[in-house]
């Protein structure tokens, strides 16, 4: 087992990893930018190293600085968390060259699954359903137009690299394609340094369902069930739950088997997530695989009792999975709400600032993952996630009621957050009934914000 792990990240995920390492009696090294000198992960780690100024490119994305810090502090491994360098194949390669273990899959796997077009081709070859679209990347606007015409509008033009909704455009008609194709390509180059695009049919009003998988170096692969991530803003998840009301037992089994098959054909090792869209007829399609821990991983931990970060570390150390598929148990229902430092009434504009007062919920079945404390700063340079409130209960209705209660206890003063919006979502009849899809916020946001305003009056 590892003696010391460097955590190449910040915020709540760095704190989350430190906690598991402490329980495993593994020392931790935090890295931080000058903007994060007083951050919680810096205070909790065994050691901390400043790796650069506030700009992410000069600190948390600075490969030489991170690797130097790991080597000089005598680390055995690097845990990348999510975001930043978590899906950076070069980091995985350089770790191997420096005698460090990258806690995640190998560089070749990251490259294959990080290229959405290549991943689609691999899945199709291994009988994992994919959304109808181009066979690999499109090389020209003319080729994109031919694919779109064949599968039928509306379509999505998507960047082969990256994620998070960047480099992606919805095209509803042929005359829109030239401008939106150029916009997607420009954004892909700006965000990922790669203008390669592919085209796929837009599945209207689907559910976004993802399956958590674990795979070790001994050929063992299991899935830990699904998470429904359909409540989204700007293609970013806001509320997640498990199990999904959109799946019955047969569909859950079929999608779980497809997720395992996807991990196997990718020769995957570590924790990962296979993401699908599910249409109204019950047909599901692979859209991508995230080769890292997910923001919403606590949902799965709450219903299975499996510490996913611990499993990542054990797998990286060469140990076999501690469970077989038949031993995986899912109990009750879990919900997660992301509390972002954003103003929903202003188009979810980020609102960084100083946390003047903080009160977080507790009680039975409530978990809060955060790096906040009174007086800490939410810097403008990084992601706006402030906290994740997660609840577990015996039934879905009990979980909804518990989450409502938990959100009513949240007090974060100093900047706007999405806490009140999440609270209102939990009262919406469509959410309570489980009858929602990825268009939920698009259709209901205006009414939800009006309810919030009426509540303030």
TrEMBL record:
EC number: 6.3.4.14
Pfam family, one: Biotin_carb_C
GO molecular function annotation: ATP binding; biotin carboxylase activity; metal ion binding
GO BP annotations listed: fatty acid biosynthetic process; malonyl-CoA biosynthetic process
This protein's pathway: Lipid metabolism; malonyl-CoA biosynthesis; malonyl-CoA from acetyl-CoA: step 1/1
Keywords from the named record: ATP-binding, Biotin, Fatty acid biosynthesis, Fatty acid metabolism, Ligase, Lipid biosynthesis, Lipid metabolism, Magnesium, Metal-binding, Nucleotide-binding
Record's keyword annotation contains Magnesium: yes
Listed SMART domains: Biotin_carb_C (SM00878)
Domain Biotin carboxylation per the UniProt entry, residue ranges: 1-446
Residue span, ATP-grasp domain: 120-317
Keyword Endoplasmic reticulum in record: no
Gene3D superfamilies, per the entry: ATP-grasp fold, B domain (3.30.470.20)
Catalytic reactions on record: N(6)-biotinyl-L-lysyl-[protein] + hydrogencarbonate + ATP = N(6)-carboxybiotinyl-L-lysyl-[protein] + ADP + phosphate + H(+)
PROSITE patterns tied to this protein: ATP_GRASP (PS50975), BC (PS50979), CPSASE_1 (PS00866), CPSASE_2 (PS00867)
NCBIfam families named among the record's database cross-references: accC, PRK08591.1
UniProt xrefs under PANTHER family: BIOTIN CARBOXYLASE, CHLOROPLASTIC (PTHR48095:SF2), PYRUVATE CARBOXYLASE SUBUNIT A (PTHR48095)
Subunit structure: Acetyl-CoA carboxylase is a heterohexamer of biotin carboxyl carrier protein, biotin carboxylase and the two subunits of carboxyl transferase in a 2:2 complex.
Function of the molecule: This protein is a component of the acetyl coenzyme A carboxylase complex; first, biotin carboxylase catalyzes the carboxylation of the carrier protein and then the transcarboxylase transfers the carboxyl group to form malonyl-CoA.
Protein name as it appears in the record: Biotin carboxylase
């Amino acid at each position: 087992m590892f003696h010391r792990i460097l955590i190449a990240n910040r915020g709540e995920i760095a704190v989350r990893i430190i906690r598991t390492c402490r329980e495993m009696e593994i020392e931790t090294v935090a890295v931080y930018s000058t903007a994060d000198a007083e951050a919680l992960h810096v205070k909790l780690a065994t050691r901390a190293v400043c790796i650069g100024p506030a700009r992410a490119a000069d600190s948390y994305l600075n490969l030489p600085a991170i690797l130097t810090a790991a080597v000089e502090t005598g680390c055995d491994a690097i845990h990348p968390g999510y975001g930043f360098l978590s899906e950076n194949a070069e980091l995985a390669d350089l770790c191997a060259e420096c005698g460090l273990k990258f806690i995640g899959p190998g560089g070749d796997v990251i490259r294959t699954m990080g290229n959405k077009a290549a991943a689609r081709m691999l899945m199709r070859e291994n009988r994992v359903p994919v959304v109808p679209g181009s066979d690999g990347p499109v090389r020209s606007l003319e080729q994109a137009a031919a694919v779109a015409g064949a599968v039928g509008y509306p379509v999505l033009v998507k960047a082969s690299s990256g994620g998070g909704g960047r480099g992606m455009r919805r095209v509803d008609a042929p005359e829109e394609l030239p401008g939106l194709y150029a916009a997607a390509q420009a954004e892909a180059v700006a965000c990922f340094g790669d203008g390669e695009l592919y085209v796929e049919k837009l599945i209207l009003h689907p559910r976004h369902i993802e399956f958590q998988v674990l795979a070790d170096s001994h050929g063992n692969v299991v899935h830990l069930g699904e998470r429904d991530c359909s409540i989204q803003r700007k293609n970013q998840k806001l509320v997640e739950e498990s199990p999904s009301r959109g799946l019955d037992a047969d569909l859950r089994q079929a999608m779980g088997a497809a997720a395992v098959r996807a991990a196997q054909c990718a020769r995957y090792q570590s924790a990962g997530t296979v993401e699908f869209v599910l249409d109204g007829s019950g047909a599901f399609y692979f859209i991508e695989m995230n080769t890292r821990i997910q923001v919403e991983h606590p949902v799965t931990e709450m219903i299975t009792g499996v510490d996913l970060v611990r499993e990542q570390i054990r797998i990286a150390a060469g140990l076999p999975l501690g469970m077989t598929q038949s031993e995986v148990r899912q109990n009750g229902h879990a919900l997660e709400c992301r509390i972002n430092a954003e103003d929903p009434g202003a188009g979810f504009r980020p609102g960084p600032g100083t946390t003047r007062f903080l009160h977080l919920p507790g009680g039975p079945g409530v978990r809060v993952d955060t790096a906040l404390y009174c007086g800490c700063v939410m810097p403008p340079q990084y992601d706006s996630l402030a906290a994740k409130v997660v609840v577990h209960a015996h039934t879905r209705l009990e979980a909804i009621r518990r989450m409502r209660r938990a959100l009513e206890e949240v007090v974060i003063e100093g900047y706007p957050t999405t806490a009140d919006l999440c609270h209102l979502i939990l009262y919406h009849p469509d959410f309570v009934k489980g009858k929602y899809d990825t268009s939920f916020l698009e259709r209901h946001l205006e009414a939800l914000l009006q309810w919030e305003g009426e509540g303030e009056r």
